[in-house]
Amino acid sequence: MVSRKFRRGRKKHxxxxxxxxxxxxxxxxSALIICVLIAVFTIVAWKACNRPSTPDYEGVIVxxxxxxxxxxxxxxxxxRLLIEDDKRGRITVSIDADTYHRSxxxxxxxxxxxxxxxxxxxxxx
Length: 125
Fold this sequence. Notes:
The chain is α+β, with helices and mostly antiparallel strands. The chain contains 2 helices and 5 strands, in the order αβββαββ. It has a 5-stranded antiparallel beta sheet.
Protein backbone atom coordinates (compact mmCIF):
# COMPACT_ATOMS: atom_id res chain seq x y z
CA MET A 1 0.00 0.00 0.00
CA VAL A 2 1.12 3.46 -0.85
CA SER A 3 0.81 6.09 1.83
CA ARG A 4 -1.24 9.24 1.36
CA LYS A 5 1.81 11.47 1.76
CA PHE A 6 3.52 9.67 -1.09
CA ARG A 7 0.49 10.11 -3.35
CA ARG A 8 0.26 13.82 -2.56
CA GLY A 9 3.97 14.30 -3.14
CA ARG A 10 3.73 12.42 -6.41
CA LYS A 11 0.82 14.60 -7.55
CA LYS A 12 2.69 17.83 -6.73
CA HIS A 13 5.78 16.53 -8.45
CA UNK A 14 3.84 15.71 -11.63
CA UNK A 15 2.18 19.16 -11.61
CA UNK A 16 5.56 20.86 -11.18
CA UNK A 17 7.14 18.83 -13.96
CA UNK A 18 4.26 19.62 -16.34
CA UNK A 19 4.62 23.34 -15.58
CA UNK A 20 8.39 23.16 -16.06
CA UNK A 21 7.87 21.27 -19.31
CA UNK A 22 5.49 23.97 -20.58
CA UNK A 23 7.97 26.68 -19.67
CA UNK A 24 10.73 24.76 -21.41
CA UNK A 25 8.65 24.35 -24.58
CA UNK A 26 7.77 28.06 -24.54
CA UNK A 27 11.44 29.02 -24.17
CA UNK A 28 12.48 26.75 -27.04
CA UNK A 29 9.69 28.03 -29.28
CA SER A 30 10.54 31.67 -28.46
CA ALA A 31 14.23 31.11 -29.21
CA LEU A 32 13.35 29.39 -32.50
CA ILE A 33 11.09 32.28 -33.60
CA ILE A 34 13.79 34.82 -32.75
CA CYS A 35 16.39 32.85 -34.73
CA VAL A 36 14.08 32.67 -37.76
CA LEU A 37 13.41 36.42 -37.60
CA ILE A 38 17.13 37.18 -37.38
CA ALA A 39 17.82 34.89 -40.35
CA VAL A 40 15.09 36.53 -42.46
CA PHE A 41 16.32 40.02 -41.56
CA THR A 42 19.90 39.05 -42.43
CA ILE A 43 18.89 37.65 -45.82
CA VAL A 44 16.83 40.72 -46.71
CA ALA A 45 19.61 43.08 -45.62
CA TRP A 46 22.22 41.05 -47.54
CA LYS A 47 20.20 41.17 -50.76
CA ALA A 48 19.57 44.91 -50.38
CA CYS A 49 23.26 45.67 -49.84
CA ASN A 50 24.53 43.40 -52.62
CA ARG A 51 22.15 44.56 -55.31
CA PRO A 52 24.23 45.06 -58.44
CA SER A 53 24.42 48.65 -59.53
CA THR A 54 24.75 49.64 -63.15
CA PRO A 55 28.20 51.13 -63.67
CA ASP A 56 28.91 54.26 -65.65
CA TYR A 57 29.10 53.48 -69.34
CA GLU A 58 29.51 55.09 -72.72
CA GLY A 59 28.76 53.62 -76.12
CA VAL A 60 26.35 53.25 -79.01
CA ILE A 61 22.80 51.91 -78.80
CA VAL A 62 22.72 48.62 -80.70
CA UNK A 63 19.20 47.54 -79.82
CA UNK A 64 16.26 48.71 -77.74
CA UNK A 65 13.14 46.94 -76.60
CA UNK A 66 10.22 47.19 -74.25
CA UNK A 67 8.00 44.62 -72.64
CA UNK A 68 5.73 43.94 -69.69
CA UNK A 69 6.29 42.24 -66.35
CA UNK A 70 3.08 40.39 -65.67
CA UNK A 71 1.82 39.19 -62.33
CA UNK A 72 -1.43 38.45 -60.54
CA UNK A 73 -1.64 42.14 -59.65
CA UNK A 74 -1.33 43.50 -63.20
CA UNK A 75 1.37 44.35 -65.71
CA UNK A 76 4.17 46.91 -65.59
CA UNK A 77 6.20 48.05 -68.60
CA UNK A 78 9.99 47.78 -68.72
CA UNK A 79 12.44 49.42 -71.12
CA ARG A 80 15.93 48.20 -72.06
CA LEU A 81 18.84 49.33 -74.19
CA LEU A 82 21.66 47.16 -75.50
CA ILE A 83 24.78 49.31 -75.59
CA GLU A 84 28.09 48.49 -77.25
CA ASP A 85 31.19 50.30 -75.99
CA ASP A 86 34.31 51.16 -77.98
CA LYS A 87 35.93 47.82 -77.07
CA ARG A 88 32.96 45.92 -78.55
CA GLY A 89 31.70 44.94 -75.09
CA ARG A 90 27.93 44.89 -74.69
CA ILE A 91 25.81 45.79 -71.71
CA THR A 92 22.05 45.73 -71.23
CA VAL A 93 20.69 48.63 -69.17
CA SER A 94 17.29 49.40 -67.77
CA ILE A 95 15.93 52.87 -68.54
CA ASP A 96 12.79 54.90 -67.97
CA ALA A 97 10.01 55.43 -70.53
CA ASP A 98 11.05 58.99 -71.45
CA THR A 99 14.65 57.98 -72.24
CA TYR A 100 13.37 54.99 -74.21
CA HIS A 101 11.16 57.17 -76.41
CA ARG A 102 13.97 59.68 -77.04
CA SER A 103 16.54 57.00 -77.89
CA UNK A 104 17.22 55.51 -81.32
CA UNK A 105 19.43 52.69 -82.49
CA UNK A 106 22.84 54.10 -83.43
CA UNK A 107 22.72 57.02 -80.95
CA UNK A 108 25.60 57.64 -78.57
CA UNK A 109 24.64 57.21 -74.94
CA UNK A 110 26.54 57.67 -71.72
CA UNK A 111 25.81 57.42 -68.04
CA UNK A 112 27.80 59.44 -65.55
CA UNK A 113 26.97 59.67 -61.84
CA UNK A 114 23.53 58.15 -62.43
CA UNK A 115 22.49 60.57 -65.19
CA UNK A 116 21.88 59.20 -68.69
CA UNK A 117 22.79 61.45 -71.61
CA UNK A 118 21.79 60.72 -75.20
CA UNK A 119 23.61 62.04 -78.28
CA UNK A 120 21.60 64.32 -80.57
CA UNK A 121 21.64 62.13 -83.67
CA UNK A 122 22.33 58.53 -84.49
CA UNK A 123 25.96 57.92 -85.41
CA UNK A 124 26.81 56.18 -88.66
CA UNK A 125 28.84 53.01 -88.31
